[in-house]
Amino acid sequence: MGRAFAEKVLARAAGLSEARPGEIVDVYPDLYMSHMASWRCIRTLEKLGTDKLYDPDRIAMVMDHISPARIPKTADDQRMCREFAVRKGIKKFYDVEAGIAHVVLMEEGYIRPGMVVIGTDSHSTIYGALGAFGTGVGFSEITAAWVTGKLWMKVPDSIKVTIEGPLARGTSSKDVMLKLIGTLTADGATYLSVEFHGSYTQGLSISDRMTLCNLAMEVGAKNAVVCADETTRSYLAERGVPSGHYAEVHPDADAVYVKSATVDGRSLAPQIACPHAVDNVKPIDQVAGTKVDQVFIGSCANAKYEDLVEAARILKGHKVAPGVRLLVSPASKEIVARTVKDGTYSILLEAGALITNPGCSACAGDGGVMADGEVTLSTANRNFQGRMGSYNAEIYLGSPAVAAATAIRGAITDPREFLS
Amino acid sequence: MIEKILARASGRKTVTPGEVVVANVDCLLLHDLSGYLTGRVFEREVRRPMRYPERVVMIFDHHFCPPTEEGARILQENRSFARRWGINLFDCGNGNTHHVGVQNGFIRPGTVVVGSDSHTPVHGTLGCFATGIGNDSHAGTVMPFGKAWFKVPDAIQVRLSGTHKRGATPRDAALWLTGTIGEGGAIYKALEFAGPYVEQLDFWDRWLFPLIVVDLGAKCGYIEPDEKTLSFVRSVTDKPFDVLKGDPQRAFEAVWEWDLSDLEPQVACPPTVGNVKPVTAVLGAPVQWSELGGHGGGRIEDFRLAAQILTGRRVHPDLRFNLVPSSRAVFRQAVREGLVEKLHEAGATWFPPSTGSNQAYNMGAMTAEEAMISTHARNFPGRNGSPEAKMYLASALTVAASAVAGAIADPRQYL
């Protein structure tokens, strides 16, 4: 009987010949990501009474979530991390100017097919975009992994999600995922390994794969993956990682899936997740015209280079509607560089966007906070009540194209109105 | 010049120093924090209609992207106040109060400009009487009556001459003057900046001189408008204005003259703006942060100077270099000139046009052990996180050189 991706990758990381769903295995992750709150791990480590690290090269720290500090406590926490990294010889340390941890680590070539990556962020499922097993864990787990190198995990069952393309005009990977989340619901894949298959995923850009795997968290996934292919290999090769430096893991053709789902991208319309749950998804025509105060293009889900280019394509020659704030937070320093170079940055600026330094920005409450009664259309991955400031504010989630069209009109707008 | 402006604004033929006049106010500049306080007093206590809403300008600059619900609520109330009264509003990301006011043509020669930011005297660069007054005065007299009272100040002329040597800039001259005249060295005076040095400066370099007067205790600072001033004003507004100049034989309480030819790069050291030393006295002082921004920086000129230093060099890995344009216009210009790309590639980080780390509303908090060198206008303890944190103020050249060195550095070694 064939094995699914998660079973094979966890067996390898646990040094076992096989690992069955439901089995508990001791996994030796290849990389442990912790963001700005790494200070919690450092404090926990102090309490453990040891500071001998299993392998400092497997530790990656990125000072995202709040960057830079606006209160002394945050500045102190970040300084603690900085000094710890120097003291412990942690080379994969990225300071407040780098951007969002997930995106930075992928750009740096640290995430490779077949790896197991744990991170102190629920959207660590994103690492599946490069054929890795990525999952979110707590600070204590990360600290324990720092010291022991291992973490126990229950091997998940798998779900096969088939996406057929090409996508209908005006839609993107974000719409695919919102459609899927609306269909499966927020707990539709709890503790399942989500495997993306189908014609749409073949040759799909890493950026779109990141959106798929990132948002898989919102159906409850343990991890999510688009298995490595030529696109993955060339993405890594461009970042100095030749294919000999990793071992791809692919599910067997006869792997067993406990569930399956299909999204037909060919007939898809832009989708919106309405307040206050990510699975409260409606096709855009049902919410078009809803007035917004703010549009946020940001987060690890949708502030990648391709996302900003897509938004700029619609915003070019237009202005943000009077009274509406358009907040753009590129996901990384590299993305800022690319968008400045190719003119995307300039188009956004001329349209009236407020472009922040790279980072989590409004998605992590670091700016873009709303007051009572305000409404934001966001490209991020969560719209829970109170997530962006007031409990009496509303967040709608949509694609970068929807965000751009909405910024121009000041109300939720179908981007197809701007595509010729 | 100030006497003439105040005479005209108060409907008199002449006024003399020491006299108290009630003057018509042509422009009221508010930022997000002061605007909120002013608006509340105006609506809750004053409860009268607003006389000239078109003269009132509110700019959100301390919060450029509110990180707290309280910040969001303040901005929301400010927005609805602005809508209710029809005043001019510039939301987050447009720049810092003074630059936005000037770039959008609200400040014109010969006028009376007030604002609750203490650096409001900077608009004397355009030949205005400009000064900072309290929020309650804005709410109580400026908003309902379009007026404010002033005691006419005595004037002192600061005559500057000389040409800088390599590595010294007008910002160094302004810092040096702050140290030399001293905090409290010109209390309630009108400081006229004049002389061949001032005449040869371009508009945005002249700007750095009236900017310092509040820290000397002065009521206002100004530069008599000349052809450079007028062509600048015409580039930002097509509204008419009427220039007033002092009489050629005008009397000053004092004339202070300095030759700036031998000026070295200067640094205002903690804990106050008047603690100014040549850069050589603080070489090697550790800094973890550097920033071009605030009222004293973030001009296109600052980014050009930084680019001179950073050509072929990178920001030191142990230090972070923040770039905060003073206005959207400057940001766009920096993109066009390739400065955004060049400085980003060198390792600096761009932030939205605003006051940046000023008072750490949105960014710029430091630990007790940290220090920053910046082009900001103030360095008092507690403005940037821990009261123990240090802030050094310097020119864009010195800030950029320090960003490369990872410690306070002399820009002359990098030019």
CATH class of the largest domain in chain A: Alpha Beta
Question: How many domains of chain B?
Answer: 2
Q: Judging by the overall fold, what is the CATH architecture of the largest domain in chain B?
A: 2-Layer Sandwich
Count of DSSP E strands of chain A? 18
Low-confidence stretches of chain A: none
Could you explain the architecture of this structure?
The complex is a heterodimer of chains A (420) and B (415). With 420 residues, chain A is an alpha/beta fold. Chain A folds into two domains: 5-263, Aconitase, domain 3, CATH 3.30.499; 271-418, Aconitase, domain 3. Chain A has 13 helices and 18 strands. Chain A has helices spanning 5-14, 38-48, 72-88, 101-107, 139-148, 173-184, 206-215, 230-238, 299-302, 305-315, 333-342, 344-351, 400-409, and strands at residues 24-27, 31-34, 59-62, 92-94, 116-119, 133-136, 151-154, 157-164, 192-197, 223-225, 259-264, 271-273, 281-283, 294-297, 325-328, 354-355, 375-378, 394-397. Chain A has a five-stranded parallel sheet with strand order 4-3-2-5-6, with helices on both faces. Chain A has a five-stranded parallel sheet with strand order 16-15-14-17-18, with helices on one face. A four-stranded parallel sheet of chain A has the order 10-9-8-11, sandwiched between helices. In chain A, strand 9 (192-197), helix 7 (206-215) and strand 10 (223-225) form a beta-alpha-beta unit. In chain A, helix 6 packs parallel to helix 7. The model of chain B has no long low-confidence stretch (mean pLDDT 97). Chain B folds into two domains: 2-257, Aconitase, domain 3; 266-413, Aconitase, domain 3 (2-Layer Sandwich), CATH 3.30.499. Chain B has 415 residues and is of the alpha/beta class. In chain B, strand 2 (27-31), helix 2 (32-46) and strand 3 (56-59) form a beta-alpha-beta unit. In chain B, 31% of the residues lie in helices and 18% in strands. In chain B, the strands form five sheets. A five-stranded parallel sheet of chain B has the order 4-3-2-5-6, sandwiched between helices. The radius of gyration of chain B is 20 Å and the shape is globular. Chain B is built from 14 helices and 18 strands. In chain B, helix 2 (32-46) packs across helix 3 (69-85) and helix 11 (300-310) packs parallel to helix 14 (396-405). Chain A binds chain B through residues 66, 68-72, 74-76, 79, 95-97, 323, 325, 327, 333, 336-337, 340-341, 345-346, 349-350, 353-358, 361-362, 365-372, 374, 389-390, and chain B through 64-69, 71-73, 75-77, 79, 91-93, 320, 322, 328, 331-332, 335-336, 340-341, 344-345, 347, 349-352, 360-370, 385-386, 389.
